[in-house]
Amino acid sequence: MNDHPHRRFNPLRQEWVLVSPRRNDRPWQGHVDPAPADAAPPFDPICYLCPGNERARGVRNPRYSSTFAFDNDFAALRPQNAEVRTQSSELRTPNAELRTPNPDDDLLVSRSERGVCRVVCFSPRHDLTLARMATPEIRAVVDRWIDEYASLATMPWVQYALVFENRGPMMGASNPHPHGQIWATETIPNEPAREQEAFARRRSRHGDCLLCAYFGVETRLAERIVCENDAFLAVVPFWAVWPFETLLVSRRHVGAMHELNDTERDALADILRRLITRYDNLFEAPFPYSMGFHQRPIRQTSADDWHLHAHVYPPLLRSATIRKFMVGFELLGSPQRDLTPEDAASRLQAVGEVHYADCTRAGAPR
Ligand code: H2U
Ligand code: ZN
User: Fold this and answer.
1) Tens digit of pLDDT for each residue in 221-249?
2) Separation of alpha carbons 319 and 312, rounded Å
3) CA-CA distance, 123 to 364, in Å (whole number)?
4) In whole angstroms, what is the distance from residue 193 CA to residue 202 CA?
5) What is the CATH code for 6-41+190-360?
6) Best mutation site among 61, 73, 120, 167 for ligand 1, i.e. most ligand atoms within 8 A of its Cβ?
7) Is 258 a catalytic residue?
């Protein structure tokens, strides 16, 4: 069946994915992205995120030596959305439904949304990436994510905090300095809300956790596992959409990052470094991706219906400069992929965990 076009079901998003195993063989005369930039310097005097530099709105960064977080100077959301002035100049309280031009219908609905947007610099070094940082340095990033999450959770109206990283210009990252973002919102965003329903549905039908069950199946089959340690498993999911998409799942049933114990936090740092190194090794180039953690919504106290995981969505398909475009059928029909998840997993398994930049030309570790 793996040689023929088929559909697979994504139980987290409750949707079908079309798999076209041989489609990657087709000729390509389409768009080629620019090759990734040459190595950056350890400090860039014009970088907005380097220690001691001035940011775009004039605030100066401290001379930080590990991680550093600040409120996004160009935040997409604000904590005080004040009142919202409607068309009739009537004032409404936050999160009120806004007056629409056609109040008798529910076609034009909008709501006010409060939020806090944080930027998290992973390292003072401008030239590093998670793959090029030492595991204890990544552990400091994990601790920073946990601290930021805890402080965002103290705001009573915050329902969700999404920790994510856009890496590389192809994914829209605005700066090569290693950094990610955290957006805390007044409502649960679409993707985790959808997963929440899937977790609840699974528990009501089967009495177990969707990801504990899935994790058990992948461990038994051992076909799509890219790398693992005592606390985490990185797998190309059976239903992957992006060519080299992976799912990072905690072995223990925990709902949020702060519930990981000390050893598991180290293990998270370890698996992140190893997984991203494998990505970089695939085309011997810094691999672009969007990566983010799905944790239990902040006000939900029961751990039952949530299992901590991260999605890594990288766009590359054929090389460091040829990406997968989610257009046409993908945009208008269903998501479609051009190689099987099993092929993608075997390629990520084959590349090894010594970063290509640390290898000699002959491929041996330096
Ligand atoms: P991205 O590279 O994923 O866009 O994240 C960088 C964020 O940093 C971006 O959201 C913010 C941008 O608004 N930023 C500042 O807050 N201040 C600056 O001086 C530069 C960039
Ligand atoms: Zn920098």
Assistant:
1) 999 999 999 999 999 999 999 999 999 99
2) 18
3) 28
4) 14
5) 3.30.428.10
6) 73
7) no
